[in-house]
From TrEMBL:
SMART domains: AAA (SM00382). Belongs to the ABC transporter superfamily. It comes from Flexivirga alba. GO terms for molecular function: ATP binding. Residues 7-234 form the ABC transporter domain. InterPro entries: AAA+_ATPase, ABC_transporter-like_ATP-bd, ABC_transporter-like_CS, P-loop_NTPase. Keywords: ATP-binding, Nucleotide-binding, Transport. This is ABC transporter ATP-binding protein.
Length: 312
């Protein structure tokens, strides 16, 4: 049985005068999925997120957001929450007052314990009674996320939620989003940080010039890459270089090209390979008694695809 869709849009276009921000966009996002939206500046990410939030209406096309048809007029669909260009907060109010005000405006019933628990979850309990105007960017991001989550949305839409976060803050945000998805909330987020997208998202959509260049699981994106660059560290660099040069589908990179016979270098080996060739290389190294101590992509599949599409 397939998972029901939280978002289904077809042939959506958005024009701002002569500028085409979205051009025949199709998108399906299942309920309970964390879906990443990436692309260069001007690709249409913010326009699409704004449409999901009901902040802008499509010029053409159709779709459904939760139980609502994609609106031709500006209206925030019931069950949807989130923010674009940073959360909207009251700078003269405290963190706690911001959350209680948000709940009052949304009409969601809550209590003091719920607010306190959320402040603890996002790591802001120690500044609960401080005014928001003194908060850092990362603190405001976490408070904005807390305000959105407290409204109990079925769809959460976030623009750059990890912006300004330190490692501890990023972990807290990741934990909140992962827990929401596990409980059935659909999360759509944009980010320029590929590591965040890969750590959080089940699937990803890459936008280029208002059109969908790719959409699907990250594993599919990796499979569609002809090859990736890898960094290889072994117990015997000279033997590894010789074996790699003799393995079909392995291409030595940079300074390693033409150096397969060099017996001395101890630096990591840089190579390009598709997954089948890489598997064969690892097998050959093992048979040759060469231990693999590190094998990591120089660029992740998502980042490699992004750069390929951007440069094309």
């Amino acid at each position: 049985m397939s998972t029901p869709l939280a978002i289904r849009i077809r042939a959506v276009r958005k024009h701002f005068g002569d500028i085409i921000a979205l051009d025949d966009v199709d998108l399906d996002i299942p309920t309970g999925q964390i879906h990443g939206l990436v692309g260069p500046n001007g690709a249409g990410k913010t326009t699409l997120l704004g449409m999901l939030l009901g902040l802008t209406a499509p010029t053409a096309g159709e779709g459904q957001i939760l139980d609502h048809q994609l609106a031709r007029t500006r209206a925030v669909p019931a069950g949807v929450a989130g923010f674009l260009d940073g959360p909207g907060l009251y700078p003269t109010l405290t963190a706690r007052q911001n959350l209680t005000s948000s709940l009052a405006l949304s009409g969601v019933r809550s209590n003091d314990d719920t607010v306190d628990e959320m402040l603890e979850t996002v790591g802001l309990s120690n500044v609960a009674h401080e005014r928001v105007r003194g908060f850092s960017l990362g603190m405001r991001q976490r408070l904005g996320l807390a305000a959105a989550v407290l409204t109990k949305p079925r769809l959460l839409v976030l623009d750059e939620p990890a912006n300004g976060l330190d490692p501890a803050g990023k972990r807290q945000v990741h934990d909140v989003l992962t827990d929401l998805a596990a409980r059935g909330t659909t999360v759509v987020l944009s980010s320029h940080r590929m590591d965040d997208v890969e750590a959080l998202c089940d699937e990803v959509t890459i936008l280029m010039s208002g059109r969908v260049a790719f959409t699907g699981p990250l594993a599919k994106l990796a499979a569609e890459n002809d090859s990736l660059d890898y960094r290889l560290v072994t117990s015997d660099p000279a033997s590894a270089r010789r074996i790699a040069a003799a393995t079909h589908g392995i291409h030595l990179r940079g300074a390693d090209e033409g150096m397969a016979a060099d017996p001395a270098p101890t630096r990591p080996l840089l190579l390009a390979a598709a997954t089948p060739a890489l598997d064969e290389l690892v097998s050959r190294l093992a048979r040759g008694g060469v231990a693999v101590r590190e094998l990591t992509p120089v660029l992740s599949p998502l980042e490699a695809a992004f750069l390929t599409l951007t440069d094309s």
